[in-house]
Specification:
alpha/beta; Rossmann fold; 2 domains; 6-stranded parallel β-sheet; 4-stranded parallel β-sheet; 14 helices; about 15% strand; globular
Length: about 375
């Protein structure tokens, strides 16, 4: 069950639908709201049903979802957001089918809107009473759910994964002006302001860099705010804003280093795994599961969230050659293939499915 976006959590779902058949499971999608997901997904062979629910309490959508589960013999409901968890919990109360909740971020600190955070936390806590098993994308999220009082025996960490790039291609260490890249649904918790301030510092130090910023903005208001800040800092000529794209990998290939300056709310971002798969060294904030993927000085570089000076320093270290760019690139490639592939992610989720189904009472 998902919503209208096509961001990190939706890309996880898309890849699971593609890879789960290798492990004996087939997935269908119930889209609670219309949006980008139906058109952007790669898993076009998986059935998709648009419920177009107008609210969490849209009972027409609930009735249709119950009918879909019955008519198509779905054995498991898998929710990925507080909203879809609430809907899934109500369907489970009626049908009794097992419910999985995939935790992608800590909803209690997922945005800058405290009321929204509290509401989502309440919804998640209430609906989670019906959950048979939790899948957390990082150890930090598993610890977070345990701290909220959930049973550790019903929580499994399955790291996010992305497709392995068979031949990312040889590349020479960059020279001249470096292209930094970032990819996001740009919103306040992504820390874009921190990255812009770091760019301004680098310009003052005559460090030759430019920024390729890939992705849409959460709102027109936030877009105006960020672009205004870039003008105020006199760095707007250093930045290319691409807008939304479904082909992130094409832009990754143009980047010499990938920067993720998130302030909070990340689980295990798909974009840093995609950068690793392309052999692009990552410079990222130490938020939630990011240090689980990026070992500082081995697969990339880590800095403290919100510290623009520290981010500028780490970028300058890489550009100046104080870290071996090729070694970081190679280590990231190997680590992604070994630990963070789409196949390993699907295998982990399939294991959870089997575990949950084995606990169901026999119908014979």
């Amino acid at each position: 069950m998902n919503g209208e976006h096509f961001s990190g959590a939706e890309r996880v779902q898309d890849l699971l639908a593609l890879r789960l058949p290798q492990f004996g499971f087939e997935a269908g999608f119930a889209c609670l709201k219309s949006g980008r997901f139906p058109d952007e997904r790669q898993s076009q062979d998986s059935p998709l049903f648009e419920l177009n629910m107008h609210s969490r309490a849209d009972f027409r959508g609930l009735r249709r979802l119950r009918s879909l589960v019955n008519d198509h013999d779905y054995e498991i409901l898998h929710a990925h957001t507080p909203r879809s968890l609430l809907v899934g919990s109500l369907v489970k109360r009626k049908l009794g089918c097992p419910l999985i909740y995939h935790v992608h971020s800590p909803v209690g600190r997922d945005s800058t809107q405290s009321f929204k955070n509290r509401l989502n936390q309440w919804v998640e806590t209430w609906a989670a009473r019906q959950v048979d098993h939790f899948v957390c994308v990082s150890e930090s999220l598993r610890n977070y759910m345990i701290q909220l009082g959930h049973d550790p025996q019903r929580i499994t960490t399955v790291a996010n994964g992305v497709a392995i790039v068979p031949e990312p291609g040889e590349r020479e260490t960059p020279s001249g002006c470096w292209t930094l890249g970032t990819t996001a649904l740009f919103r306040p918790r992504k820390g874009t302001e921190v990255l812009l301030q770091a760019l301004a510092t680098l310009r003052q130090r005559d460090v030759a860099v430019r920024l390729l910023a890939v992705g849409p903005f959460e709102s027109d208001e936030y877009e105006r705010s960020i672009k205004s800040l870039a003008r105020q800092l006199s760095i707007d000529d250093l930045i290319e804003w691409t807008g939304f794209t479904s082909d992130v990998s094409a832009y990754m290939q143009q980047m010499d280093a990938f920067v993720l300056p998130s302030l909070f709310g990340e689980g295990l971002p798909m974009v840093i795994l995609e950068a690793m798969a392309q052999g692009v060294p990552v410079i990222a904030a130490a938020v939630e599961g990011i240090p689980q993927a990026i070992r500082d000085g081995v697969d990339g570089l880590i800095f403290e969230p919100g510290d623009a000076a520290a981010l500028a320093e780490r970028i300058e270290e890489l550009v100046a050659g104080r870290h071996d760019w090729s070694a970081l690139r190679y280590s990231a490639l190997v680590r992604q293939r070994d630990r963070f592939s789409d196949v390993s992610m699907a295998a982990g989720v399939a294991d959870v499915y089997r575990q949950v189904l084995s606990r169901q009472p026999s119908t014979s």
